[in-house]
Amino acid sequence: MSASPFSSPLYARLFGDAELGRLFSDTAEIRAMMLVLGALAKVQGKAGVIPEVSGAFLHRASMELQIDPAALAQGVGQNGVSVPGLVAALRKALEAPEHAAWLHWGATSQDIQDTGLMLRLRQALGLVEARLVAAAGALGRLAEAEAETPMAARTYGQVAVPSSFGALVAGWGWPVIRAAERLRALRPRLCVSLSGAGGTGTMLGPDPAAIRAALAAALGLADPGRSWHAERSLIAEVAEACGAAAAAGAKAGEDLLILTRSDVAEVRLAGGGASSTMPQKENPVAPSVLVALGRFSAAQGAALGAGAAREARDGAAWFTEWLVLPQLVMAAGKSATVLAEVAAQVAPDRSAMAARLADPLGLIHAEALSFALARAMPRPEAQGEVKRLAAEARATGTPLPRLVAEAHPGLALPPLEGRATLGTAPDEARAFARAAREIGDGQGPTVNLD
């Protein structure tokens, strides 16, 4: 297997995501940090912290120069961070020592790298959100179309009561909407980092807060109003939101792995995977990917939350973010893409669903029968009576509704088939479909960092 299936040519169609992968490439990281360095020089020049002509020169050069990430590798291995090597490479490439001396004035490596990460996250989270919205839309259309398709609801893996397939789909879709909403709320809060070596901003000029605010405005990011070198709650929120997106896909995947089983077969998926030896099989590959991404994200999130950052800055906590956060974003984005595809491939087998509802013993109606009986006796006694009769139905092969009617001839039995047995299930499906249509508003522009 590959060290990273997200970037493996072999697994590209299963886990790969070229669009998001570009944002977490070395090239995109270097480009983002160069944009930060240039913007910082420009705002410092305008504020008189450095010569204005040097600020303008450095800003323009940051958008024109190209730095090879591989050329910085040795320095990263030694320093544990890429900014010192990047700054040295830029100063050399500028061939203007009178301006180069003002590059990276008063900032620290973490300021540049974290702010560059925010630029990339702004675009990446926008992509993931848009995919979640698309998945919600596909699920909403499915839920609305199947709002009154009757099927058995299951609890603890057991047939429980009548419901509708549309209501089940709505149960897949609501977490998708919630994940999209979380990402939508997070993106405007992505903020710059600018507080210098120890978080005090001492070398940034006479008014570090004003420089930070100006940098935020120049980059279109939020101003945090403080140092967050060792206060990583925003990173944790991004990780949690991405984990929630993958978990939403995993919920649908888990249910589809059950519904597509040979012994259940209530749902078919177009384009199932082939077996190397069993020609009859159509394996549920896409639902399996959804479940795997959900499990992977849970494990990655646990690694990120294993410990708080120490002191004013913490290299170990920071390095852990580098290992974990890109993978979480990639997993969330891939999960949303696969979920939208799956929603378009799902085909309920209505006859199989109807056959399960039409179980000759009628045990699926036990709850309704117990509540009907509770009109004639205390509720605990009614439940105990129906439980006893259900056991008799299994033992004798006699339908439960008949046993209840014979044991209690004066009892008015509730409807045991048709729309009346579905309760609010159709309404649940249609309510989700409406919400899925509404979540589609508010997509914002992105910035190209390629």
Task: Describe the protein in words.
It comes from Roseicyclus persicicus. Pfam families: Lyase_1. One of its GO terms (molecular function) is lyase activity. Residues 361-433 form the Adenylosuccinate lyase C-terminal domain. InterPro entries: AdenyloSucc_lyase_C, Fumarate_lyase_fam, Fumarate_lyase_N, L-Aspartase-like. The protein is mainly α and 450 residues long. It is 60% helix and 4% strand. Helix 8 (165-186) packs parallel to helix 17 (425-438), helix 10 (233-259) runs parallel beside helix 12 (315-345) and helix 14 (366-373) packs across helix 15. It folds into two domains: 18-352, Fumarase/aspartase (Central domain) (Fumarase C, Chain A, domain 2); 363-415, no CATH class. The chain has a two-stranded antiparallel ribbon with strand order 1-2. The chain has a two-stranded antiparallel ribbon with strand order 3-4.
